[in-house]
């Protein structure tokens, strides 16, 4: 077990190392759609690349999710075959959101530096595909609102 301080230091080292090893400007929160963001997730048990829908307006949130559902075949067939759509994903905080994501299937723990490289490569393979999909269908996605 790690203390909170050690765990925080390791998490910071993980993300700093990722940024230095793979310097790139990511889309992430800069989608220009409120409550619509891409995220990297890495913790003690899993890593994933996500598209989170957390719009404050529940109707707008559902409209965005439905718009993305209409693109599921394209996203799956042309960009990310392993993508998972979850209309009620529960975050660690207990908040329930719409999440579209790809899991890193290799064994991973942010506390095990031997697993970092594979995770970084997963991030580098997956996020650009998500971004390409978004840029290609951005106007269509935005038209839901």
TrEMBL record:
<dbReference type="Pfam" id="PF14088">
    <property type="entry name" value="DUF4268"/>
</dbReference>
<dbReference type="InterPro" id="IPR025364">
    <property type="entry name" value="DUF4268"/>
</dbReference>
<feature type="domain" description="DUF4268">
    <location>
        <begin position="10"/>
        <end position="137"/>
    </location>
</feature>
<protein>
    <submittedName>
        <fullName>DUF4268 domain-containing protein</fullName>
    </submittedName>
</protein>
